[in-house]
Each structure stands twice: as structure tokens, then as C-alpha cells.
Amino acid sequence: MATIGLFYGTDTGNTERVAKDMKVKLEAVLGEGSVHLSEIYKKKAADMEAFEYLILGMPTWYDGELQGDWEEFIPEMEKIDFAGKKVAFFGLGDQYGYASYFCDALGVFCEIAEKKNAKVVGFTPVAGFEHDFSKAQRGDIFVGLCLDTDNQDEQTEDRLNHWVPQVLGEMGLK
After folding, report:
1. Cβ(102)–Cβ(136) under 8 Å?
2. Structural domain boundaries enclosing 84
3. Which of 119, 136, 137, 153 has the greatest count of CB atoms below 10 A from its CB?
């Protein structure tokens, strides 16, 4: 059985809540114990290197600021050779309050992972969001799953229900 490393960073608990919900959905398909859930706080490159399949979750704060634990993890992230690894990103942002920075953290970390040979999966459509700019956006898609629990929390469950099977399929696990 393949194990997915599901890493998240959180300050308010919203990203943690989504990560825990995602773990339940993933394990409903893959079986109990198939997902290793871990907060990124004080992690090292070796913690991620242990997994062939990774899902990384992070919020974007204010004017495009990274969540503190993820910001501290950047030097570790840059040490990882992601060759042979499949990586998916999800992130939380506020599309109205910070319309020019919506889910920027996904774009920042996706770029690092791609430069380090990751196969990134889980791209999602921009449709359904109202923002001005995002580093996570490439044309009409995001480099992962963007969620706005401040303004569209009622859509979070449905978006997860669509994204989880997509990611499992793209990872070759379903």
C-alpha cells in the first residue's frame, strides 16, 4: 500500500481542519493508515523525502505572506530532490480581502518543487473565484486546490470531494 505524506502549516486551524478532512477522504479510498498527516512545524527535508506521494497544504496571509512554518521550511524544501515524486498542493486564501494575492503560497512552493524535479498534479480551474491575481494561477488553472474558507466555506466540502479523486487518479493510486 502506498503511503501519502500530507503536510500542512496552520496558524488559525483552518488549514489543519481541511487537511484532517482530506485525510479521511483519502483513507476512505486507500484504506486506514495510508496517509501520514503531519504539521510542517520543525520538519526537515528527510521527513518529506520518505514519501513518493505528497500533498502539501498552506494558507496565504495578508498581502501574499507565507505561513510562518512554511516560510521557515523553504531552505529544507530546496534540499529535496523531488524526482520520481508526485506532489499536489492545496491552499487557503481570501479572494476578496486580498484579491491580488489569493493563494500565492501555492505558486511559490509549486515553483520550488518543479525546479527540484517534482511531477505536480491536482491542477484545478480558476472558475468560481473572484480575485485579481495569484502566483498559483497559470492561465485559467490553479497549480492546486484553492479554497476560501472565509468567503466560500460552504463550497469547501464539494471542492474536496472533486479534488481528492482527481489527485488519486493523477498519482496512479486509484
Report:
1. yes
2. 4-171
3. 136
What type of residue sits at position 174? K
Nearest to 61 by CA among 95, 93, 90: 93
CATH code for position 62: 3.40.50.360
Burial per residue of 5-44, b for 16 or more beta-carbon CB atoms within 10 angstroms, e otherwise = bbbbbbeeebbbebbeebbebbeeebeeebbebeebeebe
Cβ 43 vs Cβ 76: under 8 Å: yes
User: Which of helix, strand or coil describes residue 166?
Assistant: helix
C-alpha cell at 118: 517534482
For 87, list phi and psi in degrees, rounded to 5. Answer: -130, 135
* Count of structural domains, the chain: 1
For residue 53, give the nearest of 34, 39, 71, 40 by alpha carbon: 34
Cβ atoms of 110 and 143 closer than 8 Å: yes
Q: How many residues does the chain have?
A: 174
What DSSP element (H or E) covers 125? strand 124-125
* In contact, 38 and 71? CB cutoff 8 Å: no
CA angle 31, 162, 62 (to 5 degrees): 105
Per-residue model confidence as pLDDT tens digits over 58-103: 999 999 999 999 999 999 999 999 999 999 999 999 999 999 999 9
